[in-house]
Amino acid sequence: MSDRPAIAAAPARRPLLVRRIRLLVAATITYNVVEAVVAITAGRAAGSTALIGFGLDSIIEVSSAAAVAWQFSAADHERRERAALRVVAVSFFALAAYVSFEAAQALLSGHRPDHSTVGMVLAAASLAIMPGLSYAQRLAGRELGSRSAVADSKQTLLCTYLSAVLLLGLAANSLFGWWWADPIAALAIAAVAVKEGRDAWRGDACCAPVPRTGGAEQDSDCTDGCCRG
Q: What is 11-218's CATH topology?
């Protein structure tokens, strides 16, 4: 995508964008509920803290997406923007805290999980599905000027990174016995989650349109990079 600032959606497109965000959020919630059940079940069977952590991350994702769904269930969804952003931010912080704890515990204990075919298939499926959901929601959120929708799309994108980390970690453990690969990469993901949570808390998740004098809207100032990429 270009570096040009996002342009506010025309009034006629706003209802369409709101419906699109609702559908994308519903799809994200549905997939993450299934993902959580499968990951936690497979993690317990294999004794994999990474898989169990991935499943709990899915539950955190559901809380973030549910906050955006709550916001857009109201006719005047802009009034709920700040509250939804705070929930998304807290979800990021909770994810970072949990992933950091699990990674540190795995490194200190040297725990070696069993091979999990189910876990590897689940991670690969999430790696294929989540980027599309994140990209579509981010486009709609940027055009609508919704910080919470863009913040939630970043939460979904972070799940993509975790899927890649999980897949590499499970594969490295199964093929080479590199049990430490997953917790090391997970710590890097936790650092990213803290940064995104801070941006969401401050309301920096999207470049919202800036009102002109007289009520019209102009292009926004892009100071945090969300309008890029």
A: Alpha-lytic protease prodomain-like (1.20.1510)
